[in-house]
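Notes, p. 3: input format for complexes.
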Amino acid sequence: MKVERDIVDRTLAELGVECPGPQEPGLVSVSPIDGAPLGRVRMHTAAEVAGMVETARQAYAAWRLVPAPRRGELIRLYADELRAHKQALGRLVSLEAGKIISEGQGEVQEMVDICDFALGLSRQLHGLTIASERPGHRMMETWHPLGVVGVISAFNFPVAVWSWNFALAIVCGNPVIWKPSEKTLLAAQACLALFGRALRRYGDEAPAGLAQVAQGGREVGEALVDDPGVALLSATGSTAMGRAVGPRVAARFGRSLLELGGNNGVIVAPSADLELACRGIVFAAVGTCGQRCTTTRRLIVHADVREALLARLRQAYAHLSIGDPLASGTLVGPLIDAAAFDAMQAALREAVSQGAVVHGGRRVLERKAPKAYYVEPAIAEMPGQTDVVRRETFAPILYVMSYREYDEAIAMHNEVSQGLSSAIFTNDLREAESFLSAAGSDCGIANVNLGTSGAEIGGAFGGNKETGGGRESGSDAWKNYMRRATNTVNYSRQLPLAQGVKFDI
Ligand code: NAD
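Output follows (505 residues plus nicotinamide-adenine-dinucleotide):
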């Protein structure tokens, strides 16, 4: 299996991505499809990141004064570029992250959707009017642009996660500096190049430095984390990364928005439509080769329907087409790299040592693609929720446990330290409502009769506990990117004090 050079060159050319010459310090982007290099990007130093922050601070001083609906117009123009180049950008996502074509395109569609959302929002950055206890007084809230936003992103959503932050940050009046994953470098350059085209159409109302990309590894991310000029640091990645980043931002009293690892569970009740459950579980467990933060990793199934559901799942797994994500009909592309494959194999060995019966999980297509890592998604039947099940292994492993009582299922579901996405398949109204209640799922996302992955941009996205607590995208997530002021106006000739305090001078 080999990525055609011609496809790569045509894709990069359409998107306006230029790779630096060999004399410049660079980072190489490798395709997980065949393990071969796709291109290079220029690498940045910590000192250069400091310069970017200064440029962004100057941009902020000007951009915060541009009326929000005008800021929205820039995002509208960006959405035009994304619509026009959806195929090419989606293909680049597939080339760099190994997603199947439909998922690569879906990621770009998500960018378009959040731009549309942000455009509407640019006329709705509303504050409250609040009843004052003092006569002749009025209280209100105003929302102001926050400042420079730093975005650190993960490899598995190389463009969508950035756009959730970027589109909202821009309409809220903030410039953005983006440190993409070192595994998906070119997709970031492409997003920047397309935004450059939108800027040219927008005219000179936009200051320089609204969007910048800092390429590099952890050190480049750390430079953003520690810079007091970065007002909000939005970081998406593993819980280990969040554990390192969160306290450092807090130590300088910066604001952070953390979107970290998940360990998402699905409960299948005895009343469930098993056909629907099977389809929902398979998409969420094997889609993106198990490399979504919302991937279903834990299946908690009622003992009475366990065998019937497992039979369907095994049947579906046996017919999955695994291979080149650019080929039509493929459902499961490669793992991102050798480290991901090793982590998967180690987790499966650990599962066996903890009593698992494992189906699948082997490497495939090794002869055709010796430098790439294609695997059969695995189903691991567990004796209970053992240690390996409590951890997120970023690979297609579905751990299966059974339960007898609904309360037992909820307890098992909520027992893990992550809290991103969750679902129940049931036709019992009491169970469904209970799952969504205060005593139900403890996750940021709780679904009924659909899987754990594939969220829409209209809702706030994020999770609780070790998932970090951040919320991005829809609902009122825009408030992360603004600062709130409470204003009191006295239009009387008296000066009454709150709480009836007397202070006569
Ligand atoms: P990762 O944690 O290895 O890297 C994520 C990003 O953080 C990269 O850009 C990396 O360079 C940077 N980074 C790592 N350590 C850093 C540090 N100490 N300081 C500053 N930057 C640092 O994650 P990954 O392997 O790219 O992505 C997979 C993980 O991301 C999974 O755990 C997945 O669940 C999670 N994820 C979460 C969400 C969500 O919305 N909750 C979305 C996508 C991915």
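The chain has two domains: 5-260+468-486, 264-448.
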